Amino acid sequence: MVLKDGRLMYGFYFEPPTHIHFTPDNLKRRSARLKAVFDLAIPDGETMTTYTSLRGAHEEAVQDTRKYAETCPDPVLSELTRTRAELLESKITRGEVSHWRFFATVTVTPNREDRFTSDTAPSPREIESAVDNALALQAATVAQMVASGFQAVPMKAQDIFEECYLYLNPGWPEAPQFIPQEQRTISSNRRGMPDQMTLMRQLTASFGNNLYSGHYLAGDRYVDVLSISRLPEYTETGYLRGLTEELYGTYYVIVQAQRENDYDVSNELEKKKNDLWTRVKSPGVIPSGKATNLLEQIEMAQKLEGLESRFQASVAMVLVGKDAHELETMKRRARGNMSRLRAGMPITYGFQAEAQYFSLAPFAGGFSGFQFSPYTSNVIDLFPPVSPWKGFEEGAITFQNRDKSLIRFDLFTKNTITAHFCVFAPTGSGKTVLVQSLYNAELTKYPDAVLLVTDAKQDFAYFFKSIQDAEIVVFGYESETRLNVFDLGDDEAKVPDGDKLASLLSFIRIFVEPPEDMREKGYEDVAITESIMAIYSSFSQEERAPQMSDLYRMMTVIENYTDDGRHMEPQVITAARSAAVRLRKALGASPVAKFVDCQSNVTLRARRMYFSIYGIPEDDDLMKRVANHIIKNTIWQVAKKYDRGIKKFVFFDEFENQVQTADELDAVKRMLRVFRSFGVSFGMGTQSATASAYFGDLRDSFSHLFVGRYSKEVARDVVRVLSLPEVMEEILPTLNNVVGQYSEFALLVRAGGQAGGAGTKVGDVIQVQESKLALWMFNSGNHEVAEKDRYVEQAGGNILKGVKNLVLDKFGGYL
């Protein structure tokens, strides 16, 4: 931007690190690098202005959520997603959702020989030289910002136009395309002059009115400005964070810093010192306490010469409300934040807010009317140290963070290495609602996706009962479910392939433990494999599939190899008889017999399957291993069966209670190693952070971590075990869970590529909030399930209708 007085201004967007990264000590260590930014970016007499822009979100921010709901063929998923979109839209309409943007402008005064003004039109050479100089300074500043731990990009012409436009027209949802004057087609005449769309005419699309005594009116928005009257005597890193705490709506927090000439400052201090010296040190003079204190401060300031630069600085807040009432509410909130920072009485302007409003406009080159004179370290304290996380450009679900801005999130995003995730949270943290909410969004965005969930507490039962193409498989002695592991997936197949044969051998080894002698184990493997092939051969013409008792009988009589008819070696025959004896504990009157020696009454072919092991006694390791084998085998089949382009989700709840042996853990590790290639997202939920230690170096495969509230005593161990940033020790105990409204989780994502390099952790504290309809669909407490059962029964078994009626009765017409 070229100003009328001949100065130029350049701008750049920057993104501070998120809240989850830095403790106050970490931020203080970064101040040395920020000093370099201020020393290089702000030469003597130049001004840097940082804008922390907090703007009210528009309904377009959640239009993708509504779009997914409208295109999803599953009526339940569609309805739950639609009510979620309505919830977010209602919060946006009430002004409770904002989005953050950070940018800065810096003035550049051309060299004396290149100086020009609007009265003395510049030559092309002067303009070109001045612009090249400004672009070089912009590139250097952006590089210094990146070196200081910020993400920074230079602003282009359209960016500058947008920021100016949205500031001057706060009621407009977005800025139009900027049209350079020379590209504008002359279409009419005004007052005999050609009608060319100058920059000012493009920017001033809203009328202004300052007739009101309490504020300025910009279009249909009410505007006021507050300034900090003085800087506190002691500042600390993150000063601005206190100013923006719990703000939502449309605000601009504007910090201006104009660097003073070091030589002038030195002369000024020396002059003041000499004046005060005579009033304090002269013989016969009784010094006043005020003069003594001032002399001491000046002498301390002189010690900073050569180490610190001095600035003229100001801090102001521009508030934009939809009406006078909202504006007053925002002013009270902003004043409260200022007073907590001991910043003196906030200055308000009334009808004169118009002058301050335009003076603080981006790229206007103006300066606030209230300044103080801090040194570099204090100015750095005014710089935004941390910011809310924006999430990703693509998102299946939109969360809201603590700062009331939106976070787009998707497990399958190009910005992360894998789609695997973990949820670590103690009981009662809202973990089940989080996972169901996430999968509801993912299945709505990807209607052809596959979902497999295994759970020990029946938390997901209602969700799977309500959605389409779903199968619930209940394990336990009271279960009516029967699954024959000898079933072949392909109806036309007569013999098992290599994968199926290996799976059956592994299943039989649950009951026939392998001997320690490797030679004996080899004989048994041959005997079992030959017996399996023999029963498939003998049942090739039968209508039913072979089962476990058929294998037992075959092992007791088999004496010839099936492929060539030759007589088996005595050691193999002996091994077959020995294995048959040990297999007997899975047959007859054995408690597991009716589940493992049976014909199937369900088929594992649905796209969404829920494996409930709720009915297995806690100490029944044998039945757990049987269930785990069937689940693991199904997961492998699904991963290989569906095309890689189809999203596949696998989730283990209460992981450490389900995977208990070394072999089972090894099986999960093998899955993790190859799941990325198959397009599978593996998730696990647990109450204990030490469950992650099971995976060893494979812990890095989990790109997404959701961590719930832990007490101060436990949080320290959680941070250490999960290798979280230090500041999480302070954040985790503060996470909140408001029953019936929302639950908070710390979301950490291991980003790669453009998001900051492989291994970089980004994230924020999110609030998981669902509509009343979804909340009651997902909740799994005993009394909640009992109420749902009653309403669903009254609705004739229609789950969605029953839960809707329940919510309407409880909350008077609000879903």
TrEMBL record:
**Could you tell me which Pfam families the record lists for this protein?**
DUF87
Q: Which residues form the Helicase HerA central domain?
A: 408-492
Q: Which domain of life is it from?
A: Bacteria
| Listed InterPro entries | HerA_central, P-loop_NTPase, T4SS_component
Name of this protein: DUF87 domain-containing protein
